[in-house]
Model the fold of this input.
Amino acid sequence: MTTFIAVLYIISFALFIYGLMGLTGPRTAVRGNWIAAVGMVIAVIATLLTPGMGNWLLIALGVAIGVVVGVPSARKVKMTAMPQMVALFNGVGGGAVALIAWVEFRTTEGYAHEPAYVAIASLFAAIVGSVSFWGSNIAFGKLQELIAGRPITLGKLQQPVNALVLIAAIVLAVVIALGGDAELLMIGLLVAAGVLGVVVVLPIGGADMPVVISLLNALTGLSAAAMGLALDNTALIVAGMIVGASGSILTNLMAKAMNRSIPAIVAGGFGGGTAVSSGGSGEVRPVRSTSASDTAIQMAYANKVVVVPGYGMAVAQAQHVVREMAKLLEAKGITVAYAIHPVAGRMPGHMNVLLAEADVPYEQLKEMDEINSEFAQTDVALVIGANDVTNPAAETDPGSPIYGMPILKVNHSRSVIVLKRGMSSGFAGIDNELFYDAKTSMLFGDAKSSVGEIVEELKAL
Amino acid sequence: MLVGSLAILVLAGFVGFTVISKVPNTLHTPLMSGTNAIHGIVLLGGLIVLGLGVEGVLNKILLVIAIAFGTINVVGGFLVTDRMLSMFKAKKPEDGGDK
Done:
């Protein structure tokens, strides 16, 4: 039977890896996801076949609760709320690891009687699982706007407090590994790790959130792998480690796109509030505002229009009406493309998901490197609720906090129209030079209603 | 046994690196969501520990919660990923496959 289980596990890894390979292309991705899901079902069945399994009612209860809670929330969540949903699903995974480690501690009366590697792996899993659970919940709270999205810091105390909590968790882990078997030690460890998750995520600003969620995703994977080592379960080791590796890559990639280092993000600071633009702050500078009808006319006589979507489009749920506008423009023989910055929105690919929801053809979505060379031939760049990712200060102003971040070179196009609610700054909390450019006009208002008006004007033309 | 497990750990890490590094930018959100669903495999840990028998009410409660958490992670994760991806499905070529 154990051999049979091992074979089933091997089949399930193969399916995980094959499924992930499917996720590398838009055409095979849906199938890839289901292949991985089938792998998961096989892994679960194999585990249930383990000789000596019991407690069936309780197992069924746990699974039933999970299905009843998980399925509706996954079905109903809006596409804009996807990042926080992923954060939440990630958090419960970490929570599960922490709980299992705690129960293991209780049933073995401390880890002293276990081999050293089991103790170390379990303690690692407990700490990381707890950090991931509480950190993810804070991330969820921030993105859901239950907690202020702006950084909440302890000021100068931040670093010492972070360090202190981390040291406390490690010291407790060492005490337990050396034979401490009092349950309070384990509870203290879980609490210290939980506090660490909270104090590390709280000071992080909205713009850095995707990186943090990705980091927590990778951490949960690693904690699952550690749990696999402790339980001597290859399925956990393989699946957990694959997630740990992929999550690390994704995290690094996102951080790079924002010209941020992961340690700097985790240490907190950037992301709003304190950051002040070095040039021209304080003075009130004039901006040119325009109307929906002028915008419509300007675009109707263009050869090429590039739409630059940002989080504002997501919040206003404007993607469908944007698509409608693009169709009208295309009917007039105008070329329309969409410029996708890697970190526009709240997660990499966030804009792609939203635009795909609105049936925008995949070929029209251009990545940053591709579209940047095309702005010079663009008549109108229509910026919809994007801000920091278009700020030329990232290229010109070494004093700017976002200096060096790759941007969409919207200012290279012949004219720029920015749809925005008001003159407030973006998540980086800095002024955008683009708005004061002579080529730029501002169309103030909610993105959805503004684009809706443009559509009406285009139809009337 | 430990060495074998560590070997698997290291190899799985490399598989993760190579498979994932080929994913285009546009699929990163679904990818994060998909890998997120896969680490729901911690569910197995809960199943093993509870299924092979634990004593005490608190232990059982904690494990039922852990299994529920793991199930939410798996089921929710795959469903959300599917919802995101189904939007990428090859569109019926509109008006004769214009490009």
About this structure: Residues 116-143 of chain A form the longest helix (28 residues). Confidence is low (pLDDT under 50) at residues 269-282 of chain A. Chain A touches chain B through 112 residues (CB under 8 Å).
